[in-house]
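User: Could you check the structure of this?
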Amino acid sequence: MAQTKVKSELIEGGLGTDWQSAVKTSNFTAETGKGYFVNTTSGAITVSLPAGTAGDEIVFQDYAGTFGTNNLLLSANGSEKIQGTTHNYKCETNNATVNLVYQDATKGWTADNIITTYVALVVDYLVVAGGGAGGSGPFTNANGGGGGGAGGLRTSYGSTSGGGASSESTLTSLASSTNYTVTVGAGAATTSAPATHGADGTNSVFHNITSTGGGGGGSEQSAAGRAGGSGGGAGYNGAGGSGTANQGYSGGTSTTSNGIGGSGGGGASAVGATNPGGGHHGGNGGDGLSVSITGTATYYAGGGGGGTYSHSGAMTPGAGGQGGGGTANNGAAGSPGTANTGGGGGGSDNANSARNGGAGGSGIVILRYPSAKTLTIGSGLTGTTATDGSNKVTTFTAGTGTITFS
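Assistant: Sure, the predicted structure tokens are below.
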């Protein structure tokens, strides 16, 4: 009894540690002045720390030498701090002795061999808008339609964004448990003949990042391509639509001296090609941009190919730009841009009959963030999540709604 009383007095005076003989093998709440043998062989163990006063101590000993495999996790009490922060901490050193000392309300519990478990929310993004539709041709004259422009492309991942710009900044100011809007822009619908310019694609959005829908391709009656994320290619004797700065390039132009096929729509990394001089061939769509945000290099946002003037014989239509542009089929309607690439639709080819311009491809939104974080997808959105190394990648392919991180 005398020994027990002396031991108690020493502990209360801060001169000793009251070691607990029962080894801890599951989560528990610690008490000041006590020492614990902690066995994490079966998995990580979370210790809930008490509120402290200056000079309080708690000691933890790695019982089985497994803290490096299954960590000792330290959770603060309410607004109490660990190492001067409100974050939780851990020890990941085998055979460690963790001697926590409470300093004050500013520093809280401190030790020299613990590290924070906090992972910052940093988000990289690829936001591609819907592609513009290719232009259609007339019943007479058989002039080809211009290719649709690709949807605007903005990305923070890699070194390059759309329109030849440097990649944008990774987002570091997003907050957990906050709603952020995501919209996947639709591609423009098929362009009805005769002689109609293509419609523009729809914008895609993530938070404050907006990519502009691709511009529609021109026709004989509405020769100029439309402006957009990337501009639509011109029809007969018109100007290419302009692209949006830091998103995409302009569509190709066309004049009576360089043939009466349509020009290519602009892409994320190249201007749409003018229809070849002196002929009736269509111009190629501008190439898209390769982005590896999913872990695999993939091209997005290629412009649509221009249609041909073909009543005097089969001419070559413009090819779709690499990365989702539609191809203008020879003597037929323009092909659509590839879904979820933001590719522009192909301009129509004509053989003394009206042909429809190809629809634009739908856009895409891709987010890359630390694996320790969780993204919750709200109603109205279609999305899937995969893992690439130490990051998660969530790909949205349709819809509009909100997401939250935790």
